[in-house]
């Protein structure tokens, strides 16, 4: 049985929202907002009997949710906020005082929600996904309404009983359907198409938007990314949380500008740009999932470099973003972009592969080189653990964004050295390996902060 074709929108993969974690903040906020909408659909007699809201968190949402701000994100969603319009400063202020509760208005009823209503369950829960949340409206012991949600990475959510992502559960007649890189290449060859043309045609079918609107939205996404870079290059000081980690991006940027004629300045600039966006994410600022918030420094850093150092025009940048999206779709569709499912190879590994594809396609190379670059990017992140200290998206996450971008650039160099035709491993094959590796990896190393670097927290 062939897998279903990919019908994800580019703008579902690249989403604007508050950091620090798409699976722990954006996803839960959206789930809570959805639950709020369903509360409003309850019959009046059921709503009148209800008295309490409860939020049950399991898996990584429970293990690292405090550090990731999952509790704040859920409260924000219940209050009617959505990721793309949420005020990050207002979001950070939620739940600072444990005695304060917040009113959730549902028609003529008001339900208080606060720390006592959010339960971080450490017990094992029978669920198909690592990041599970159960939202309940109760009357004493009676459950009036209960919905189970899964945060599956990159801000994508599923509700129990639904068989596909809630954002892309739409019937689509794709002009060029594919579910693997092999099928994608066959479509390109059969129709004599460029990758960007195919992606644009499919995007028009998925979203119903015209070419001009899609191009404008791509420009807007790039501008959101680059705003995060610019903010991060300006902001100094200590990041939120108990680690008390100092920002490095402004220092690196100043160093790079002072070494403009040095051969090292190129790498220092790239590192500064990636750290800048990633530090903004860690501070809870507005970033773009690429494909996740935890990996939201790689693509912004590379595209900022491409715009300001390579002087690529808007068309070239857009086309490179479409190539990056194609790779992100393939990983999400055939493995996972969630750190709780794949470890950090699902986040930084995918971002690095997407970055390698961006660089390769923007430089004018064909699909074979794009595939080789993406394959190299993933191959050299296989087995990478997700072990954040204290549950914060800071150590090792911030520096991993810079390292992932450097690997992306090197993958681009290796793939375009005239040897991509000799590549022995296909992108489809390495994605299968990635999925198997994630399945075999101990849960201690998948966003639970129970092993690896997370155990060095006492040294910080």
From TrEMBL:
Report the cofactors: [4Fe-4S] cluster
Q: Which domain of life is it from?
A: Bacteria
Q: Gene3D superfamilies recorded for this chain?
A: D-3-phosphoglycerate dehydrogenase, domain 3 (3.30.1330.90)
According to the UniProt entry, what is the EC number of this protein?
4.3.1.17
Pathway linked to the protein? Carbohydrate biosynthesis; gluconeogenesis
Q: Where is the Serine dehydratase beta chain domain?
A: 9-161
SUPFAM superfamilies in the cross-refs = Serine metabolism enzymes domain (SSF143548)
Q: Which reaction does it catalyse?
A: L-serine = pyruvate + NH4(+)
This protein's UniProt keywords: 4Fe-4S, Gluconeogenesis, Iron, Iron-sulfur, Lyase, Metal-binding
Q: Which residues form the Serine dehydratase-like alpha subunit domain?
A: 191-454
Q: Which family does it belong to?
A: Belongs to the iron-sulfur dependent L-serine dehydratase family.
**Name of the protein:** L-serine dehydratase
